[in-house]
Write the structure tokens for this entry.
Amino acid sequence: MLNLVLFGPPGAGKGTQSHNLIEEYNLVHLSTGDILRNEITNGTKLGLEAKNLMDAGILVPDEVVIGMISNKLDSHKNAPGFIFDGFPRTVAQAEALNGLLKSKGSEISSMIALEVDNQELLNRLLLRGQKSGRPDDANLEIIARRIEEYNGKTAVVADYYKKQDKFCRIDGMGNIDEIFLSIKKVISDL
Ligand code: AMP
């Protein structure tokens, strides 16, 4: 199986590159942000509980997203592999993912980290907010909160994969096609 963690701060291009990867490698895309937004659209209990945290730019509890990922893994038993986008965002989530994959005789192949400078992240998120109307992209205060959550809780997840020699850094500043080529090179070297 090819199991990739696409990593990086909000606005790094994880969603965009996930879509390229799905087409090229036929992987199942698991974005916890998308799953949560879907729950909100469907008005589920989980969605209602997550909405306030998401709109404020705060991470939802680990057990909520771990449960969601566990269900998705179970419902795609024959998948050739997964792209984890926006997950894991804490070390506890990374450990849980490790256990879930292990119980299926599998593991993460690589963490691909997209690196983008702060000013570019802000520009991209504000632009996305204007286009998509996503409430958490709409104002600078919430964006700052999300970047704070990333720096405080998520950035350390890279160390978890570095220790396992699975961490790979990609320059996320260029154009979308060039970045995708760099990602494909990493995958072909795995
Ligand atoms: P995203 O679309 O990945 O930027 O996620 C949007 C929001 O959903 C985040 O700011 C969090 O509130 C929540 N969220 C998404 N994925 C996770 C996760 N793995 N752990 C905790 N919260 C998450």
